[in-house]
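Lab meeting tomorrow. Look over both lines:
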Amino acid sequence: MGFGLVKRPVRPQAYGNEEKQGRGGESHAARADRIPANPREPKTRAMATSPQNPAVVTRSPEEQEQVDRETDKLALYYYETCPFCIRVLRTIERLRLKIELRNIRKVPAYREQLLQGGGDSTVPCLLIHNDDGSMEWLYESDAIMSYLEKRFA
């Protein structure tokens, strides 16, 4: 058994003014009108909504101002690479909430606050300052997201 050259079929090339075909039989010219003129320009497209990807909440300026005042009483203890924290942060972003974010990995004092106040250093944890002056420590991403959805959606 020797090693020889393997012959591969030769694909025909287009010559002259023939349109080259891209994937799916679409010509390159037809695709050109869908590609932005500036390649650095971001390609934007509306995201489909679904239970996994609901739409961003829209409010009037007055309603948003009221929500912003209410979120002054909230703080989220988290860190960037925690997948459960990321889910909560996406919910906060989608609901357009201005909640104070306390990264326990960047500021060790936040971890101590979480441990002393809530009794556990698990993240995510939402600190809720109630109107009567008491504090509530809400753990578990599903519970936090449910709370935020019911109160601000």
